[in-house]
Amino acid sequence: MRRIQRRIALLAVPALVAGVLVSTGPAGADPTGPKGSAGSGHSLLENIKQAHHVDIKLAGADMLDKVAAAGFDIEHGLKRVPDGIEGEVVVTADELTKLKSMGVQLLDDNTRFKWSEKADGGLKGPAGPKAKPPAPGGPPATDPALATVRIARADWFTTKGQGFLYVEARTTEGQQTNPIVGMQLENNSGKGTPFEFARTMSRFVDSGQYMFHRNLFKLDTRPSEIRVTSSTGGVTTGVVSDWLENAPSPLTEKPGYKSDFVDGYRHPQQLFARAKEIAQQYPGIAEIVYLPNQTNGYQRKAQATIGGTGQSAVVVSSAAWGHEGGNDVTVEFVNRSGANLPLAVEVTGKAVRVLLAKDASGALSSTATQVAEALRTQSQGLIDRSHPYRTNAGTGIVAPTEGPVALTDFLDQKRVGAPEGEVPRGPVTIPVLRIGKHRDGKKPGVLIQAQDHAREWVPATTSLESAERLVHNYKTDKETKNIVDNTDVFFILSNNPDGANYSFYNFASQRKNMTNHCADSAADPANRNSWGVDLNRNYRVGSAQDGYSGGSSVCTSGTYQGPEKLSEPESKNIIWLVEKYKNIKFMMSVHSNGGQLFWQPGAYIADGRITTPRPPLGDEAFYWQSASRILGQVKAHRETVVTPENVGGSSDVLYSSAGNVREDLYHTYGIYAFGWEVGGSIYNPATGNWQGGSFQPAWDGNPELVSGHAETMEYANGIMEMFRVAADWGKDKKKPTSDLVPGNGKYQGPVNVHFETNEPATIYYTTDGSRPTLESPRYAATEFREPGQVFHVTETTTFNWFSVDSAGNIEKGYDPTKNDKRNNYRTATIKIETKKK
Fold it and tell me: Keywords, A to Z (predicted)?
């Protein structure tokens, strides 16, 4: 018996179509009230002096890692294109020159990738042997065991009055680079109509590995079938499926249902205060759980770089936090009259005077290295770190200052547009809002984690809106009562409060937390907006420390992984929570922006594109089923479609993100862990393009395109549906059923068989006559993002198997751990009869 790959259309799938990139909006727009004024579709990220918003193209994942490691922040707004990755970056002229020197290509309207909407009439590249195409709906022209083309997905969806077809197909010749294999797609105009509208599909390669060919284009009429032909001769047909076309009405459309509670962006203090109020107002169904590891806090040491940036420069940092006295420290470099004077330090209160040395001729002779050492050892504990500027040797002679230089932590909270009020300094204890009628560990737990990345404001409002809907509708809405009575929900409304405050009050583009792990070479205050750890790169599975791509060891990189795994209190808290509350079975890490919904695998080793383990086919199917439910509710609000190409394993649809939280929770604890990039592209019928979002869209922006308020409401719909998925999962006691197709029987010659299940389920099977166990082979996908494999049976074979659904129910009550006499597993014999000569 040999295995072959199954040829059918699946449900749906990866990257964003080319969108209209949104320009950076002006500073000064108020993001905090219900009436943000930045203007429709504009980001509230501040303009950086002499910086430009630039659209770029990277050759692939390796270049993405190198550019991120160099300190460029391009982790969102990325989309895969056939020959690389497109993204956005804000850079100065000097930084732009550096980017170009690294091989990064600049894009404009003419060079950005766009899906072709024109029929080109034929394949490009060398033609191979022609296979006779099958009739629409008919059997394949050749034995499927020899097929060189497979359709993985063929999905139809509508949005804003326009229909789209997305197709993904593979060829066994696709890994070739010379010649490049072409794929041609044809579609019909409905059942019984001929194939037409030939288009060439784009070949998608990632990290040097062929992934598939794909295409997305507009159509006036929904096709029922497609046909894909390879330039090497392979041909196959597939049935078109619907994507998010039949979602039920959201809860918000029910009479009397309360929603739209959040009227503007919320900083962490407001989020946490409201969480505590909810627990106080609804004690019967809500409480606060405090996470044990305090954050570093919205605080920094006071600093100054004295003497420019050359060999004579000295970087000085206070021992005390700025707000605890560091901001009161002054440092002065003093020139005295005379000769042969030693280097000395005088301290009066918080004033530090460095008396510079002089040589025999009366010339100043103290080097930056010497001054730095004197400050460290003779400042009576006022100065903690003192060193030459960055990588300088510090050999230059230090010049006197024009009076005392005041140290500062730069946390002046005067960014234009920031909300009023003093941010509490010092470590923060993060509260978790827990909602559920039965909080005894017997109901399935759902963890909603928002704002790992500080600048992502919509995830926090989306999560708060979901919490408000639960408590306000519990007594009046049957579906909400079902959720609260049958789940145990944990909301972390901001998992990065320090960074979020820094985003609100100092530097809106802040991504990481505020902990500075940088060595002297990067610890000067000019780098302060680049310090911190990317919390979603700080976990243990598929980490950068283990060789996976997408995490950086450079402390100023936007994807800095931290000095070690779980180095940060914020990531330690997540592990503490799921270990303490073992009923947590679902998790959603809510991010922005991009419009992807994804799961495992989330990372790969670039050399060979070796991913973390892929979920079993049953788990993958459950993820897809849940995603369809969740995204259907998002679409119901204002027809925002998270396109099928943006759903699946995150390393397949987005990029490799080493050490992310989802990998750790799924592989270590068996939690169904989703990642969500809310605020994806929206089709604009006026322009015929897909318009991208931003991290902080104007709250009352264009409600049909880019709006913080609209995103909050529609993605809260999706989170509510995730709660219903968990409630259904918790009540699922029904055993799955499965079949071998075709089944038991006699066959004249070789036959192709495969397994089918009535719901997402994992199948364990044997073909050697033994009883199946949990150690037996698992029925696998043909290839990633494809359905189950097909077995090409050439001799009589008996299959023994059982299936297990996502809730752990086993078919027919079979116990694979016990060798009892019932042996009530499934069995089928494929008997191959040999013709007599």
Answer: Hydrolase, Metalloprotease, Protease, Signal, Zinc
